[in-house]
Model the fold of this input.
Amino acid sequence: MMNTKKLIKMAKKWQQRAALHRKRISFQRSSSATSSTAAEKGCFVVYTTDSTRFAFPLSYLSNSVFQELLKISEEEFGLPTGGPITSPFDSVFLEYLIKLVQRRMDADTEKALLMSISSARCSSQCSLKLQERSTQQLLVF
Amino acid sequence: MVKPCWRIGAGMERSKINPTKVDGLTWYKDLGLHTFGEFSMAMIQANSVMEDQCQIESGPLTFNNPTVQGTFVGVYDGHGGPEASRFIADNIFPKLKKFASEGREISEQVISKAFAETDKDFLKTVTKQWPTNPQMASVGSCCLAGVICNGLVYIANTGDSRAVLGRSERGGVRAVQLSVEHNANLESARQELWSLHPNDPTILVMKHRLWRVKGVIQVTRSIGDAYLKRAEFNREPLLPKFRLPEHFTKPILSADPSVTITRLSPQDEFIILASDGLWEHLSNQEAVDIVHNSPRQGIARRLLKAALKEAAKKREMRYSDLTEIHPGVRRHFHDDITVIVVYLNPHPVKTNSWASPLSIRGGYPMHSTS
Done:
């Protein structure tokens, strides 16, 4: 069994790693204004604070990390009324989350990750600025 | 005991042909018969527990005057849990009948009294459950009720559900809104609250780009929400996340309905009554156009589908994918939706005798997850 202290330590480590990734990962941007709202089959869409569009398979909705993500989005922005879902994180952080989810974590890792998400949200709050929606697109499978 | 079977009325026969059905998260009755014509009902669940409730009652509206016949329609959009909307569905119609029997007729006062007593009794339940189940104090519901009787339609509304009349006009149909709504994002509702609470600078707060009463709730009137009506419920053991930080003396929300009375004309084709989950995606005119231009059979489900298609478009996804999403997480894509379409015949269905009494409660059985 893991204790809370150890979990927090793990969470911190991940955040540091995420910060490292932030410097390395760059996104493919489509050059022209495309039909970015075309719906991909079997997917739901989440935008990030830096206006990147992510299309996830519907099965991600039953993942507890994603459910937490939606909950945080609701707390942060309220339920979306006239448009798509926006996550209170940037694309780098979301990209990192996806990688962890794809690796199929064990229960302890997942617990630590959920804690990490919550703390990351606190630090991201001050730098939250909704920018104009760009044409960046990202499909995750 | 042998039950008489030779007096099955038109309503009963119709119920057999078109029973109420459940298909996944959708509950529906495609077509039925009320005192003054046909009706269609449909509901869809988005929350982990369905918070919307609805009912249609047709037949005598008093216990002592058989000539007062009519149709009662209720749409109850709950929040914070299903208890308040279920309580209304169980109680408001018997109360309406009780008050109508006292004066042997339907009136605006009778309907308003039924609303007031339903709210009062729900708050009594909250008091009773306070030691063991304090979160009942944070449960509430909108309440939209329509009564069609004697050529008049009474629409009583507490909250932000909506009733819209479809009136035929030059080959088409015009939407006439019959309900007055109480939502902080309407200027009239804000003015009312500001004038009632002139010394409270935080009575209305903008949060997540929407106006909310005390920063917590969009509706400015409701049934239930005891913690916003009586200070005695705005304290422990109610969890802090459901409480207001400051003490109040005057009730913040009221249960008073806004009532409109409209004399029906031969041009009046139908009334759509629906929770805000529908009106979030369809305009009044779009909704009446769909009803006017489509077959009656399954019209409520058709409206539901039109709203869901719009919801899918806003979330940049396909309608077929939206329908795959499980309740609970589905609330991020759309709200619980209830829609009832009541067609209006200029003459009662049977001229020589009344149609069989009818009582349908929407939403049972419904999916539930913990």
